[in-house]
Amino acid sequence: MQQGIKTTFLLLSDTHAKNGVRAPDLPVDVAIHCGDLTDGSKIHEFETTLALLRSIQAPLKIVIAGNHDFTLDDPIYQDKADTARRLFSITPELMKKEYGNPGDAHRLISQEPEGIYFLVEGTHYFRLSNGADLTVYTSPFTPSIEADWGFQYKRGDNHDFAIHSNVDVVITHGPPKGILDMTNSRQRGGCEQLFAAVARARPLLHCFGHIHEGWGGKLVAWRGTEPSENPSHFTDIDNGASSVIETLATIEPRQRDSAETKPEKECRLRSLMEQGYRSTSHCSQDESPARKGQTTLFVNAAIQSGDEDGRPQLPWVVDIELPRSTDAGL
């Protein structure tokens, strides 16, 4: 069996064009931004995030949109522009100055020469500079009650996440239901249909954001060799063989923490903040629990804190083993 190639990913999401966000100072093979590049989808916010992406040391930088990036969703942007003119008497000139014309934000990102690829929903293939082949599925779509922001569908409606079994990495803006999706109101914010699609495909890695307070990493072991008829986080996860790598609850001091636990968390969080990222290694077949068809590493890489006044959360650095390109030699 041909040995795969260790590939290092930098994962981040929901930077919202905040000025305090910094990329870790380390080279990686692939950087992924899982959407919400902006807070209000203004042109200057896209420019701020593009500057962040340029600073990342990676030959390939994959970017998708999030619900806050509504000017990348032309029908939604046109609807919002019409509403702003009708209800608030905002002039077309002011709209153009702040948000650009329809299509301007997309052109701004798509014309970047720094190895930045803005991807729409679907499956995409890359041959990496380290000699590996990478197949990703991307989707910016998230469920919402009103579905009046970018790339949204009404919760309860069907959305087809067409993830094939050959996909190595799934990149979505929102989480699957039941995994790193708990909101501050103790509700699951993820999507059932997305979970089902991922459970059927069983990729090596699924990264996302959207639910800021869901930041963390979890290695999920799948039950059996085949998914259930209607996959859900209740039926298809082998909880005994799965493990939580990190969540906010494991590193942030909480009121209920013991006198011993609180200083331990403070020390660990301080160390991670100085490092600038949360790292986990999933590389060789002997060491790695991330195995195609058996386990999937899920990462919520939301940078903006669930507490609006909180400090930025940490990006993730993850190593996984990808198939060697057929043109890369032995």
TrEMBL record:
Annotated GO MF terms: hydrolase activity
Domain of life according to the entry: Eukaryota
CDD domains: MPP_239FB
InterPro entries xrefs: Calcineurin-like_PHP (IPR004843), Metallo-depent_PP-like (IPR029052), UPF0046_metallophosphoest (IPR051693)
SUPFAM superfamilies: Metallo-dependent phosphatases
Residue span, Calcineurin-like phosphoesterase domain: 23-213
Name under which the protein is recorded: Metallo-dependent phosphatase-like protein
Source species of the chain: Echria macrotheca
